[in-house]
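Troubleshooting log. The previous structure file for this entry was overwritten by mistake, so regenerating from the original sequence record. Sequence copied from the archived sheet and checked twice against the printout by T.R.
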Amino acid sequence: MEERTWEKLVKGTCDGEPRALARLISRIESREPGWQRAMKALYPRTGKARILGITGSPGAGKSSLVNRLASGFVARGHRVGIIAVDPSSPFSGGALLGDRLRMHDVAATKNVFIRSMATRGSLGGLAQGTRDVARVLDAAGYDLVLIETVGVGQDETEIVKAADVVMVVCVPGQGDGVQALKAGIMEIADLFVVNKADRDGADQVVADIRGMLALAGGGARDFEMVFQTNALSGQGLDTLIDALAHRMKRLAESPDRASARAREEVLTLVEREITRRVRAYLAGGDRLGEVVERVRHRQCDPYTAAESLLADLSNVKALAHE
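Regenerated output below.
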């Protein structure tokens, strides 16, 4: 009975039924039994959507910008899926859903589907479930998926593993603009957007970004990577959408990033499955408890303890067949 339910939801999603899509996403995000079979069934229907990642510091206006971008792309004939990745509650594990509230303009728009998700404690703010939901939206016929990350700044580098194009949103008036762009953010961006460009200091932020790009060897393309917008008034939005469309088309024709993303996803899934199996195996016996007690009483250091457990596991064939 349960398998038929999954099959029905997968079929409904591929047929463009919003209710089936919403239910399927909820069950996959919750990792209900059968979610992997559903993803395997959907995979042949994917690969058409372009994925745009939007990250940047809190308060930069990312949600308002996504709201405008979605409207602009829909006006150009696209079907747009939006994944708003909100911070997880440390108590319930659920998302706070603040970003979705700020996207009211497109929430009821035809050809737009919005889904809020929790980071679920994932480093970098991007859970594997986010990639899965993007793939479900792809199978459902949404040819553009916007992923807005939580906006914690320098830790947001995981978005590059999921997106075709990464856009970093900056804003004037948040202190040293150059300092805010250190430690990984410069490397992941395909383009920068200085939002709230009507504020004092916007031109200086643009100059700072271009200066850092020049130091990194960007050359003439520095000026092609930095844009100014005002999400409230619409200033610069058409130019930005043109640039995004061009970059997504160009990158879609290059297999390098797609290959890197596929490799990273496979490795991530293998690592997480190995971790799950190891934890399950060790939890079922007394060996872990014995080692932990020895470490606690300073009879053994944790490094040697870990090595001894790994040595034990090297001969355990059950892990490969669980």
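The chain is about 50% helix and 10% strand. Archived copy saved in two places this time.
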